[in-house]
Amino acid sequence: MDFLVGITVLLCYQLIGEVLVLLSGIPVPGPVVGMVLLLLTLLARGKSAESLDGASTSLLSHLSLLFVPAGVGAMLHFQRIGSEWLPISVALVVSTLLTLVITALVMRSLLSLRARGGSASD
Amino acid sequence: MTETGLSTLWVYLSASPLLGLIITLLAYILSYHLYEAANRNPLLNPVALAMLILMALLFVTDTPYSTYFEGAQFVHFLLGPATVALAVPLYQQFSKLRALWPVILASILTGVFVATLSAVGIAWLLGGTPETLLSLAPKSVTTPVAMGISETIGGLPSLTAVMVVVTGILGAVFGTRIFDAMGIERDDVRGLAMGVAAHGIGTARAFQVSHQMGAFSGLAMALSAMATALLLPWLLGMLGLVS
Q1: Are B129 and B120 in contact (CB under 8 A)?
Q2: Is the pLDDT of residue B160 over 50?
Q3: Is some CB atom of chain A closer than 8 A to the CB atom of B101?
């Protein structure tokens, strides 16, 4: 029963998110709005619920399975991927590695700046 | 069973969504077991493996993707509630998030700019067509969000979905190795960079490393999805790629 309650809560927040996006026309997908609203609700309540924790954990622990159907859609685009394999593959590999490296470097230097600033002002 | 019996059975099964759903689950379970058996070697990424098995299966049986997706959509649909579910690890890590928010925000915005501009720029330099450039732009964002963005800016949502999945696999396969080579040990830094670059697939990998890395990856994935959805149409407009 707990799982059922948890998943229903998640679906309701998704629905609220989708409806808000439709009504307001903001260019953000509905599930993201639903996530923000759920976070705000949890912060306002000051605690989560066991049913919600359980449903979230089970959904997120199989997160990578959920990407499989969309990935298989590659077969729809074999022709385009074949004729543009060079720009697509280089862009994907280089951009993903650059993003990993630069984001980690920026965060690490900001953290050490902050730590130094903090100890200097003490 | 007679041959006509068998072919009637196949006609029935191949038209039923049940088969698409079951082969998705079986291919993933099999891939996951292989991944575990290989000591979680990131090169045997279960998403990539399951995709290859399923594409081979559909190719051999001459099944169109739309028929397969009739069943697989039930799995695909769960991406929506899974995105909402990210609020829970976010909430659990909120005290850390609040203490570090200027650092987190600046790092995520940097990552979003690097991810989108480098992908579009590299593909453009190498002669990619406009539809391909637009489909690549949201590649570091989780699938349901990326497909929505792709549609808004005039890309091909189903092509974007593929780019997103490949990006995620690349991040999951190489992420931890790159961080080791760079000497980055803090799980919050590793998680955040993983979530910005490789969304949900990177986050799934991060949760296998530690709960903190997973939570920061989930946080980064959620915030970068929001930032990309808000900034990308404007950014591409500045570049003259969308009107």
Answers
A1: no
A2: yes
A3: no
